[in-house]
Amino acid sequence: MKRIVPLFLLTLLYFTLQNYNYAQRVNSEDYYFLNWEENKSITLNGILSSDAEFVSWNCVNNAGVIVKNPSGNKTEVVFSRPGYYLFNYSIMKSNGTIDSHYVIVNAFTTGSYKERLNDLISLMTTEEKIKQLTNQADSIPRLGLRAYNYWNESLHGVLAEGATSFPQAIALGATWDPRLVNRVATAVSDEARALNRLYGKGLTYWSPTINIARDPRWGRNEESYSEDPYLLSRMGVAFIKGMQGDHPYYLKTVATPKHFIANNEEERRHTGSSDVDMRNLYEYYLPAFKSAIVEARAYSIMGAYNELNHVPSNANMFLMTDLLRRQWGFEGYVVSDCGAIHDMLYGHKFFKTGAEAVARSILAGCDLNCGQAYREFIKDALDEGLLREKDIDSALFRVLSARFRLGEFDPPELVPYSSIGKDKLDSKENRRLALDAARKSIVLLKNNDILPIDKSKIKSIAVIGPNAREAQLGIYSGFPNVLISPLEGIKNKADSLDIRVGYVKGCDIGGGLLKPIDPEYFGVIEEKGIKGLLGEYFDNMNLEGTPVITKVDSLIDFSFGMNSPADGVPSDKFSVRWRGTIIPPDTINYIGTSCDDGVRLYIDNKLIINDWKEHGEKPIAAEVKLLPGKKYDVVFEYFDNSLGATARLTWDLGQKDFEKAKKIAAENDLVILVLGITPGISQEELDRKEIELPSVQRELVKQTAEVNPNIVIVLVNGGPVALAGAEKYAKAIVENWYNGEFGGQALADVLFGDYNPGGKLPQTFYASTEQLPPMSDYDIINNPRTYMYLNEQALFPFGHGLSYTTFKYDSLKIVSNTLNETDTLSLQFRLTNVGNRNGDEVVQIYASCKDAKFKVPRKQLKRFRRLTLQTGESKVLEFKIPVDELAFYSTYENDFVVEKGAWEILIGSSSEDIRLSEKIIIK
């Protein structure tokens, strides 16, 4: 109720609490906690102003509440159950005006919230409920409900200023160490709690990404842990448990595994369908999500942009209700990806109206909308009878239950995580953990006795390459206080050893990572007499009619934001056509655009980029061959719909300086080439077209090898790279990933032998793009992808990773070689470090079915363990594998079935480096 007079003139209202052990205000003088287990009543005591004539106490949601003296300034209130109670306290003054206060009594019991939450929802208006079902939920002051932002990110550290940045997810996958991942997630959730306590930052986090890394061209490959469903599941479970904590009731944070399901392309995700048969779905795409819900008890999950088999994910009853809630027992809430509900209308064009889109989404089980669609269309859906109020209530109950479980509605003293403070943010312990994780993620791919660096022989090092000087963190990264690049890490280590280090960049990244075209390379617009492109600006999105304004733009590098691009042109729903010529000073291999929204680019009347649709800003590169000094006609067409506008015309000029690279390489004992890709080549909204190392980098390798054969290649990347022959020039290759704030230091520790690498590849490194089927093909079985089905030789196989020491596997024993499907396979073997260095090994156990009646994996990972052995140390390792974990999905049985007959158990250091094997029979 609106207050009639200013606050300072209102009667002061306060509560006197009698006969209680615990009651505390938290938000304001009008909000009180009452421990109902210990006290069933509370005394309300009003202090009246001199002109007060009448007092009235009223419980708005009168659920068994007894107000003993409703007309007195002092009254006892008795509660028959726990609940969330709203009281109206009215005072009539002598002048006839009435002042009103809303007062809340939160009568709680420990470890329980459902009655209170139902009360809270019952007190809301329909409009208030709707505004709670978006990622940026409004406050409701009269109910003591704060505004809340559900969108927070923690893929490999909290996305916030000053938070620790751990290695990217794909790098954590390369550790093959779930206990480490759990420690990382525990540190991340500590920092999340610290930020919540310091600044009120939300506690619902949209991570981890557990879409399986089925294709290295996928723009978000770096966000996934692995191409293997078992390894991905183990890492996902470890991360979720670390984020959510181990309290039986309170959640430390809410983890949100994403994106459910088969969200493995960027190019088509807003418009296309991921077509997946039931066997691929159950065996390959679903296991990590099932483990996240059933085993890790994730309290939220994010629906994907894409359709699954031509039904939008967020309106898919099979996914959201049948699988999640009925089969897996999911108790939390589903949130849509941002703008995904709008996509159903404007991208997929699956629904004709917004009302239908939101109704189908809510009824399917999508509770929370990231975006504005629910705010815009739920009321229409209610008015049209597509939704009932109780459907809204059910969704809201699931959403707000998370905030209750996080402790927002309980006294802070009762919430075990509420005391986590500033000392956990970027702490020394977390920095040590970030360094430890970075070291453990590094994979030694090749080593011809050049690593570790011989400190007695190597006196000078040339560090060359486009990724040497920058510390690449990857996408969804925070802003850490410490950031060590590969060059800095190497130089710091070398300086302490009196080893000289020189550096040149050698070349840019290439591969379509482009820069705006400099004005001097545009031709002259004759009618204006100046260099640039002639821009025709239209007040519509279709380049129709007469331009509002025509002008020469000397640089096409615009970020209009929400502003008008030119006089008389609207800030939204406009289009531009730029015409002119370009004259390259050197050979150009790539030309491109980076726009929000649609774009078309013509070179000499040939359409080379056609992306005439709505999307956020994304760079697009087209491979061309533009010769130096030649004049080319260019037409660049662009439109913007809403929510910001950017338009950039780019190319790859200025990528290489091979002569400087060769000179410094020739002058030093050792060359370290720091190569790879960056998020500018592969990220959200941007798939790679090919997986090969950009050609300019391959040429850099070749030319430096001509003057110095002692070459170490370091890869900095978020997914597999095909080296396309560059590997033959290197004596060693090290995979360093996007490795967090201490990535450069960890790399130096490995190169100089202060840390023995033990990481293993969580993905197959294919030999070339030609080994991959089209990205839109989701059938990994019949169109082979991953180590499980690939019949060709990979560049580096799944699970591969070398060490500076040597491990011996022997003494395999299997308790019983004949089993039935209800048995458990028990095995043991001995692992010995027979080298001269302490080190880590990841033992890997695979199963291979030999008598299958249909196509099955060549082998499939079933167990693994990372362990450290001192020189000469042996350990006997024991593993147990229930036979039913060997099952394949049968489309005839609509269930998993174990194939009878001969199987082989394979034990090794990688999927292709098998050291021990044994046959078993399943009856």
From TrEMBL:
<dbReference type="InterPro" id="IPR026891">
    <property type="entry name" value="Fn3-like"/>
</dbReference>
<dbReference type="InterPro" id="IPR002772">
    <property type="entry name" value="Glyco_hydro_3_C"/>
</dbReference>
<keyword id="KW-0732">Signal</keyword>
<comment type="similarity">
    <text>Belongs to the glycosyl hydrolase 3 family.</text>
</comment>
<keyword id="KW-0378">Hydrolase</keyword>
<dbReference type="InterPro" id="IPR036881">
    <property type="entry name" value="Glyco_hydro_3_C_sf"/>
</dbReference>
<dbReference type="InterPro" id="IPR017853">
    <property type="entry name" value="GH"/>
</dbReference>
<feature type="signal peptide">
    <location>
        <begin position="1"/>
        <end position="23"/>
    </location>
</feature>
<dbReference type="InterPro" id="IPR036962">
    <property type="entry name" value="Glyco_hydro_3_N_sf"/>
</dbReference>
<dbReference type="GO" id="GO:0046556">
    <property type="term" value="F:alpha-L-arabinofuranosidase activity"/>
</dbReference>
<dbReference type="InterPro" id="IPR044993">
    <property type="entry name" value="BXL"/>
</dbReference>
<protein>
    <submittedName>
        <fullName>Beta-glucosidase</fullName>
    </submittedName>
</protein>
<dbReference type="Pfam" id="PF00933">
    <property type="entry name" value="Glyco_hydro_3"/>
</dbReference>
<dbReference type="InterPro" id="IPR013783">
    <property type="entry name" value="Ig-like_fold"/>
</dbReference>
<dbReference type="Pfam" id="PF01915">
    <property type="entry name" value="Glyco_hydro_3_C"/>
</dbReference>
<dbReference type="Pfam" id="PF07691">
    <property type="entry name" value="PA14"/>
</dbReference>
<dbReference type="GO" id="GO:0031222">
    <property type="term" value="P:arabinan catabolic process"/>
</dbReference>
<dbReference type="InterPro" id="IPR001764">
    <property type="entry name" value="Glyco_hydro_3_N"/>
</dbReference>
<dbReference type="InterPro" id="IPR037524">
    <property type="entry name" value="PA14/GLEYA"/>
</dbReference>
<dbReference type="GO" id="GO:0045493">
    <property type="term" value="P:xylan catabolic process"/>
</dbReference>
<dbReference type="GO" id="GO:0009044">
    <property type="term" value="F:xylan 1,4-beta-xylosidase activity"/>
</dbReference>
<dbReference type="InterPro" id="IPR011658">
    <property type="entry name" value="PA14_dom"/>
</dbReference>
<dbReference type="GO" id="GO:0008422">
    <property type="term" value="F:beta-glucosidase activity"/>
</dbReference>
<feature type="domain" description="PA14">
    <location>
        <begin position="528"/>
        <end position="666"/>
    </location>
</feature>
<dbReference type="Pfam" id="PF14310">
    <property type="entry name" value="Fn3-like"/>
</dbReference>
